[in-house]
Specification:
Strand order of the largest sheet: 1-2-3-5-4
Helix content: 25-40%
Distance between the termini: 26 Å
Order of helices and strands: EHHEEHEE
Amino acid sequence: MPETTTFRFPKHRRHVPAARQRTGKALSDWGVTDGLADAVALSASELVTNAVLHCRVSHAQIKVTLTLDEPVLLLEVSDPDRDRLPRLHDAAPDEEGGRGLALVTALADVWGCRQEPYAKCVWARFTLAELTEGESARAVPAGA
């Protein structure tokens, strides 16, 4: 049976570190560690940052949902600006931002977005490595 945790934060930059910490704690509680936990936590941080920066709805809540349904771990970040979908940006070397989705692309197996009735959801899927008894979950290396 899949395990799921959901938490919400006000749309403000000061809550991005808390989203990353809550993500890391949930993963740790599920026994997901090492490189996979780092990749998911960093992806959560990037997707929450994007939602905070680009959502045009005042006083919005950003929702983060993690679902572990072995061997898949799904990260979903939702905000109420359903008509403003994310797109990859080829950031110039001197630009301060614009690399969040490129990082998620590099870290996740696949990512995408969907429009819901009152929100949009940006998601990233990660695959857990096969485990031997007593091991913690680890990331499958890219290209494996």
